Predict the structure.
Amino acid sequence: MKTTHIILLIVIAVGIAILATSITDASTYDSVNSAKAKPGKYVHLIGKLDTSNGRHIEYDALKNPNYLSFHIVDSLGGSTRVVYMKGKPPTDMERSERMVLKGKMTDSAFLCEDILIKCPSKYTEEKAKISSK
């Protein structure tokens, strides 16, 4: 075999290996209960802030500005505690309609790495203005 053929085969093998590892790391949207069934796996949860039973957002910038804890509930009724260790709560978190959380479930809580907030109030106001014209 020529050297170029060997190099081409090596490049193809490396490409296949990269694709195989990225497919196994791909995350999906899960419910709270399905995420609890697979602890340690990276998942995306969709839910809304759970303020029932006196639950609230735990954040104290003076004690630890990088600790945020709250509860979410998903559309199927599953609930879990979320711990976010990367800073303050996102703006308008209390008013959000839903949020997408990226992270891993443990026995006691969902360890969140990223929070994406869906806040429809801005768009609802714009729709009302457009429809009234």
